[in-house]
Design a protein that fits this description.
This is Succinate dehydrogenase [membrane anchor subunit] (Succinic dehydrogenase). The protein contains eight helices and four strands; from the N terminus they run H-E-E-H-H-H-E-H-H-H-H-E. Strand 1 and strand 2 form a beta hairpin. It is mostly helical.
Length: about 250
């Protein structure tokens, strides 16, 4: 039984500030991602071979041929749909089912609970045992898909180096480094590496991987935010260069 306290909370600090900041941040990033997804333009810089991660891989017929590094096996998408809608379900699925993001939006958006020692507005709690929250159990499978997309992003960043080296290359490389750290710090990755081992001494390689991933896992929240924000920064930089709004700072041509 919950404590029978009439007040919503006895806390006197600004307990509402962290969930408000989290909600605002997720909302702004979601709006930006939605606008760029359905813009369908300014995702490829032909001169420097920059491809924004939001459009990678570009697999449908409306993709620019040079930006389609793995061909265009899909037909032109109907209506207002654009190439990113093919990969967004996997990327969004990985982020939404992530253990940290669950905590973030459960508290900030669903208010379950909004903060420690603050009553939630819901009458009962069913956990993740019913639809739609039972889909959170698909996280490990979204991890596999996100890992493949990460390798594709790495390929894109390395491919861009064939046209020289500029500020955009640094942005792309930092982006894949943050995405890689976030993906590897995932709880599912940690469990796959050594979570089910009963004898670490019999599996020294997996134990070594598990210890390294565990150290990254301690920074999972920071990596989740850093990688999410920098994906938007990378996309914005590529879009500005592609549109001609700014000029890429070249170091080696």
């Amino acid at each position: 039984m919950r404590a029978q306290i009439a007040q919503r909370t006895l806390r006197t600090d600004r307990w509402w500030l962290p969930p408000l900041v989290t909600f605002t941040g997720l909302l702004l990033i979601s709006i930006y991602a939605a606008v760029r997804t359905f813009m369908g333009d300014f995702y490829w810089v032909d001169e420097y071979r920059y491809l924004t991660p939001m459009y990678s891989p570009c697999l449908s017929e409306e993709c620019l041929p040079a930006a389609a590094h793995f061909g265009r096996p899909l037909p032109e998408l109907p209506g207002f749909l654009t190439p990113p809608v093919v990969i967004i379900p996997f990327l969004l699925g990985f982020r939404v089912t992530c253990y940290y993001y669950r905590k973030a939006y459960y508290r900030a958006a669903w208010l379950s609970p909004p903060a420690c020692a603050v009553a939630e507005p819901h009458g009962k709690y069913t956990g993740e045992t019913r639809f739609p929250l039972i889909a959170q159990n698909l996280h490990r499978y979204f991890f596999y898909a996100a890992s493949i997309l990460l390798l594709i992003n790495v390929y894109d960043a390395l491919y861009a180096l064939s046209a020289g080296f500029g500020l955009g290359n640094i942005v792309l490389l930092v982006n894949v480094a943050l995405l890689g750290a976030y993906t590897l710090s995932c709880h599912s990755c940690r469990h796959i590496a050594g979570g089910r081992l009963k004898h670490f001494s019999k599996h020294p390689v997996r134990y070594w991987m598990w210890t390294r991933i565990s150290k990254l896992n301690a920074k999972h929240m920071q990596l989740a935010w850093a990688s999410l924000i920098f994906v938007c920064v990378t996309d914005l930089y590529v879009a500005l260069v592609a549109s001609g709004a700014i000029t890429d700072l070249r170091i080696i041509d």
